[in-house]
Design a protein that fits this description.
This protein is α+β, with helices and mostly antiparallel strands. It contains 6 helices and 7 strands.
Length: 211
């Protein structure tokens, strides 16, 4: 479970290109694409980790945000993981937001049920969603997170996402400097060094491509 006593700042990450990775789930687990009614399972997952104050609030958010979208079909973009008994234990969404008045690919709501965290389900979900983006030719991919999700930040970095110093999307204010200071206190020295090195490399590559 995220430690929500950690200060909240907006972290923006971006993956520039597809990475060849085959998702691997625990034995007996499987992927499942959204079907009508699965919003109740999504709501329970998000409620369990504290992202919403009630399952009703979470369900209403899902329906208003994703169902009936004029351009995107949630049935093709919301991925769940089911355990060997058919229980929903994780989810992630391959969606789009707006950046500079144009649609941009964005990864939404990566979640793993508390009892199943640490088993590679989040990593497999991230990889599966990136396969969806790749199939549609939708790169780069953005995401928003925060310091209390530092384990997810490290997961994303391992899948090709890089912290953005200034870039952003949707309505988010990029708070890189504040978030970096918080992460510095949370991560090991080695984890922090690797994360910042990759961030610096990504910024340098973008500057070189512009010049």
């Amino acid at each position: 479970m995220p430690d929500r006593t950690i200060p909240y700042y907006n972290i923006i990450m971006k993956c520039e290109k597809p990475h060849a990775a085959t998702p691997v789930l625990p034995e007996g687990f499987r992927f499942h694409m959204y079907r009508d009614g699965d919003e109740k399972e999504w709501a329970w997952l998000e409620y369990e980790i504290g992202d919403f104050s009630s399952t009703a609030e979470a369900e209403q958010y899902f329906l208003s945000s994703y169902r009936g979208h004029s351009r995107l079909d949630i049935r093709e973009r919301c991925v769940f993981v089911l355990d060997e008994c058919g229980r929903f234990v994780g989810s992630c969404i391959a969606w789009k937001d707006i950046r500079r008045s144009a649609p941009v690919a964005s990864l939404h709501w990566l979640v793993t049920a508390p009892g199943h965290q640490g088993r590679g389900i989040g990593k497999a979900l991230c990889q599966r969603v990136m396969q969806i983006f790749s199939a549609h030719g939708e790169f780069p991919v953005y995401l928003h997170t925060q310091p209390w999700s530092w384990k997810a930040v490290l997961l994303y970095a391992g899948q090709g996402f890089r912290l953005q110093r200034t870039d952003t999307f949707s309505h988010y204010e990029n708070q890189f400097d504040q978030a970096r200071e918080v992460l510095k206190d949370i991560l090991t020295a080695e984890q922090y060094r690797c994360l910042m090195e990759k961030t610096t490399a990504a910024e340098t590559e973008r500057e070189d491509s512009i010049s």
